[in-house]
Amino acid sequence: MAPVIRHSTGVGFCTPGAQAETAEQPTAASGKHSSETRRITLTVNGRQHDLQVAPNAVLLDVLREQLNLFGTKKGCDHGQCGACTVHVNGRSVNSCLMLACMQEGAEIVTIEGLAESAGFELGHHPVQDAFLAHDAYQCGYCTAGQMMTAAAIINDDSIDGDEVSLREAMSGNICRCGAYKNILDAVQSARGQMRGGE
């Protein structure tokens, strides 16, 4: 399984190229100016979406503003809190640091598609059930990102199931309410269930 990657930079350029279109947008100074957009196809939660995006649009904003997938949260917008965590090709990444137009051809999974993508078409992913059972949330703002990271960790054979290893692997996700003990209990519980009690 692909390793968990934290704080992916998503550095790069999206060249509009032949598919570029011009959208007129008003400005206070001149009344109008043109900005280029690019038509892209994103595969999110197993479904393809044809979208028109700006070259500098980050994946987080496209997921929320164009696809109405509000489970992925905008926290710090700097890749430091983990609230925007999604899976891209099986890896846990910060969607606020990734340009949307660089994700063509990738398999993107958000919290809305976590259960189905893992083969749990009816009901919840075991991580979701474990977070509920262990009361591993308070305000809930970080919960989706915590769950996405936890699901990736469980599938990563290079990460041991001991407390120190799991704390380190989850360290890119901040819980401002301080529910870390319950979150760790939930991750260990789901890991035990999914990996046969390891």
Automatic annotation (TrEMBL):
Tagged with keyword Secreted: no
Keywords attached to this entry: 2Fe-2S, Iron, Iron-sulfur, Metal-binding, Oxidoreductase
Pfam families: Fer2, Fer2_2
Region (Disordered): 1-37
Residue ranges, compositional bias (Low complexity): 18-29
InterPro entries per record: 2Fe-2S-bd, 2Fe-2S-bd_dom_sf, 2Fe-2S_ferredoxin-like_sf, 2Fe-2S_ferredoxin-type, 2Fe2S_fd_BS, Aldehyde_Oxdr_Iron-Sulfur, Beta-grasp_dom_sf
GO MF annotation: an example: 2 iron, 2 sulfur cluster binding
UniProt KW Ion transport keyword: no
Residues of the 2Fe-2S ferredoxin-type domain: 38-114
PANTHER family (alphabetical): OXIDOREDUCTASE WITH IRON-SULFUR SUBUNIT (PTHR45331:SF2), OXIDOREDUCTASE, IRON-SULPHUR BINDING SUBUNIT-RELATED-RELATED (PTHR45331)
Descriptive protein name: Xanthine dehydrogenase YagT iron-sulfur-binding subunit
